[in-house]
Amino acid sequence: MQVKKIRIDKFLVHIGYGSRSEVHKLIKEKRVTLNDKIIHKPDMHLIIEESKVCVDGGQAVYQEFYYYVLNKPQGVITATEDKRYRTVMDLLLPIDQRKSLAPVGRLDKDTEGLLILTNDGKLTHELLSPKKHVDKVYYAKIRGMITLQDVKQFEEGIILEDGTSYRSSKLEILHAGDISEIYVTISEGKFHQVKRMVMSVGKEVIYLKRIKMGALELPEDLNIGEYRQLTELELKLLKGEKQGDRTL
Question: Which end of the chain, N or C, is more open, meaning fewer C-beta atoms within 10 Å of its C-beta?
């Protein structure tokens, strides 16, 4: 196994203890220890697998990559920062805000549901690449009577008047009425896609929630606005990993 060495200031910055200058201040104030010895120099190197780093007596645990699932509420935008609106990053604890996390894809401001936050750029690419065809499932309430003809239209693919095209998708009717309820499964992530597809068949989305990405479902115990790290099993589901002959 390759031994991984890193400067202690980079170690602490990566896991969310602040900017480089803030970490240097922690060290200067003698609040950081390495294997129970006070650290005085921020450029000291350590071997991650063999080191115990503590800040104010609490152990600082290193992870190369972080994976969080957030149940995004309405009213916040999917961005790392914005001068006008509250972002999904504002929902995180300060230590997590400093971990260089970024949303995987985006949900509209008024859309709720499953959103992944990670610093793993490779996984982000895998999940968002059009060539990978990773399915996203949405639950929607729409104004208007949904029909079997609409199901067929979604399956055949949709081309809007402005030339925007959407590949074949799955529309499942949960309830048909003046206010209909549906599941929509898409493998793309174009701007306002579900809303525009529904509008193309003469209806209007009035509530939208993403409930699944790939094989990962929105955890039932995660309330709106809450987030947590993915479990090992959930991460395998997200990555589409297999055990034996069965996809997790």
Answer: N
Q: Which two tokens stand for residue 192?
A: 């306002």
- Please give the Cα distance from 88 to 81 (Å, whole number): 9
Q: What is the rounded average pLDDT of the residues 81-92?
A: 95
The overall pTM is greater than 0.85 = yes
CA dihedral 25, 29, 30, 34 (to 10 degrees): -10
End-to-end CA distance of the chain: 27
For domain 136-213, the CATH superfamily is: Alpha-L RNA-binding motif (3.30.70.1560)
Q: Is residue 90 flagged as an active site residue?
A: no
Interhelix angle 232-239/121-128, nearest 10 degrees:
50
Choices 3.30.70.580, 3.30.70.920, 2.40.240.10, 1.20.58.340: CATH for 67-130+221-247: 3.30.70.580
Catalytic pick among 9, 43, 108, 150: 108
| Interatomic CA distance for residues 65 and 68, integer angstroms | 10
DSSP-H helix ranges across the chain: 8-14, 20-28, 94-97, 121-128, 148-156, 193-200, 232-239
Distance, in Å, from the CA atom of 13 to the CA atom of 25, rounded to the nearest integer, reads 12
